[in-house]
Structures are given as C-alpha cells and as structure tokens.
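Purpose: get a first structural picture of the assembly so the mutagenesis plan has something to point at.
Setup: two entries, given in the order below. No constraints added.
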Amino acid sequence: MDIAIPLYDRFTALDAVGPYEVLSRLPGARVTFLAREPGPVTTDNGMLTLTAESALEDLPRPGLVLVPGGPGARDLLDDEPMLAWIRDAHEHSDWTTSVCTGSLLLGAAGVLDGLEATSHWLELETLGGFGARPTGRRVVEQGKVVTSAGVSSGIDMALVLAARIAGEDFAKAVQLMIEYDPEPPFDSGSTDKAAPELVRTIRERVAGS
Amino acid sequence: MDIAIPLYDRFTALDAVGPYEVLSRLPGARVTFLAREPGPVTTDNGMLTLTAESALEDLPRPGLVLVPGGPGARDLLDDEPMLAWIRDAHEHSDWTTSVCTGSLLLGAAGVLDGLEATSHWLELETLGGFGARPTGRRVVEQGKVVTSAGVSSGIDMALVLAARIAGEDFAKAVQLMIEYDPEPPFDSGSTDKAAPELVRTIRERVAGS
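Result (structure tokens, whole complex):
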C-alpha cells in the first residue's frame, strides 16, 4: 500500500514520524513524504529538516493519506493546490487520516463535512468551523476517515490503522517491536488530567500570541 | 542548552524525533542533528531522510547528547570517529543519553562501564557485553547517564529529562502541548505484556536473520 504523508513548512515532526514508524512496518507498505515541491521541508521550530521525496502531483492516489499538523497548517487553509490534492486523494483512498491540526486541512478540503473528528485540544473549536463535529476523543474513526488528537496521538492512531489493515496480531507485533509500553512520568497529557491552572495559562498564552 | 543528536545511516527515526519533540521545547534549547558529514541521512527502512545540519566535530561539547538506535548502530560499534566523539562529548556533557540500541554505542564508547542501562529488548543481552548491567526498565537514570528502552521509550525519557532540566511544571506543560496521554489500542508493548508466542516468534526471526 502506498502511504502518503504531505509535508509543509512548519509542520510538527512527531505528528508525521510517529505514525510513519508504525505504518512503514506494515506488509507491503511504502511510505512517501510529499510536498508542493520535492526537497527539504523544515519543522515548526526550525531545528529539523526532512526530505520530501516527491511532489504532491507525483502521488495522486495513495491508499492511505496521513496529514500531519503544525503551526504551518494555518497558512494552508486556503491553499488550493494542497486542498485539491487532499480532496482528490481522499476520493480514491482506502484511508484518509490526520494527526493534530492536520484535521484542519482535512476540514478545509471538505473531507470532514458532518463527521466527528478531533485535533489538538487548542484547536477543537476551530475544527468546528470546517464542518466537522469536534470531539475530545484521542482517535476518532468515521469509516475510512480517521483523525487523532495532538502530536503524540498519531502513534495510537497508527496502531489502530495497523490493526484494521493488517490484523490485530500484526499490530501487536509492531507495538512490541517499537516497545510502545508508555510510562509518562506525569499524568498531564490531556486537558482532563492536567492542572486546570496549566490549561488556562496555555490557553491565555496562545490567545495572546 | 545545546542538544546534539548524532545520526547515522539506518538509524530509527522515532528514536530521534520522539525526544527531539520534547527537548526542543525546553527554554533555551537548541537541538542540532549531526552526522559524520553534514547532509542527508536515511533511516533504517529507506523511506525517510533527515538532514544532519553539522558534522560531529562542529559540535564537540553539547550540554546534552542523545544517541538514537537502529539497525545501523551495529555498523558503528568499532567506528572510532563516532565513538571518540561520544566519549569526548560525554566527558563534558551535563547529560549523556540514548534511546533503543543507541545504548550499544554508548557502551562501545566506554560510557556505560559498571552502570545499569537499557536498550531494545532484543539487544539487552548484547548490551551486557559492553560493560553495562542491563535492566529491563523503560528509563534508566544513572547520574547524568540516562538510557531508555526500544524506539518509543525516548518520549518518556525526554519528559524525565525535561523535568530534571527545567522542572516538573515545565515538563508537564510540554506533555500537555504534545498531548501525550497515550492510549495504545493493545497491551503488547513489552515482553512482560505481549503474548509469549509473539515474543518467541520475533526472537527466532531475529536470531535467524
């Protein structure tokens, strides 16, 4: 299966690389990183550059589309070449998926109309403006459209997809190979669990930026 | 703080990018990806290329060293330029760390002599041959030397480091920003939890390869 991960300036690296690490292990999977033009694409903090091997138009019909999020997603919400690529790829895909604010791009492309979907917790409200019904769940399956919450959630989503595509036993083998037995040292990974003061401080900082 | 992540042919992407996603958010952090020579470095499956911005010798004294693992680590166990860089960097670092089989490189450089350390579960025995005392714990702190288990464990380790470096409140804020509230769909992420038959099958496949 061809798996396409479109990159863009100021994407968030783990959004893309987490799911890649799982999905690339599926039997017959071929993951291709794409961009408007092939070449280097730099992440949100400017500290890491990945290579897009191909242009978007070089892989118009992947079996699985995975759109990562990041601050740069906002710059593409009216970028017709990217949105047209997503729209067309979705029409023919087996799976259309996103991590974090990648769902805003799915929404802007019209993929989420009437569907439940998720995004980074700071952008759930924005997501509602794109025809989706936002939910705070970590991985949201709506037929072939699967969205996941912020940044690290793509690993969980990719294991769900791995099970759907290659079976639960295979997904479990991948989980063991990447030793995904999480032990976060704190319990602060969602707005339900983090200190309310912390959630408020971050919301205020983002609103003021 | 300068954070150096040395890359090499056939490293495993998530080993490097998981911790990068956490550590790059620390106040004043500057993450630099290094390699023998600056330029593209391709991952273990050949599907992803990251850019090393600098040569090893361009950043001899980072505050934090993080050595990722991957199948290519085995090719470097007697690579004196890499091992000498690790050895020298460790002598001056505040933190010397590894993910997955990156610990084999720390061991080969002499960094782990007499210390408890961990690695990918398939390589714990090998690690014992490099002077370390292997343990199955996910994150192993021995003063400034911190090692973590397979692939995905680097995220947990990086949050531990974030707390040590910038305080627990800051680490919790990073955890919330990357929405690290893991929900693996299966409980198959370690040899203690996966089906014994699966563990055996993978061990036999690796032994036969």
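Chain A touches chain B through 64 residues (CB under 8 Å).
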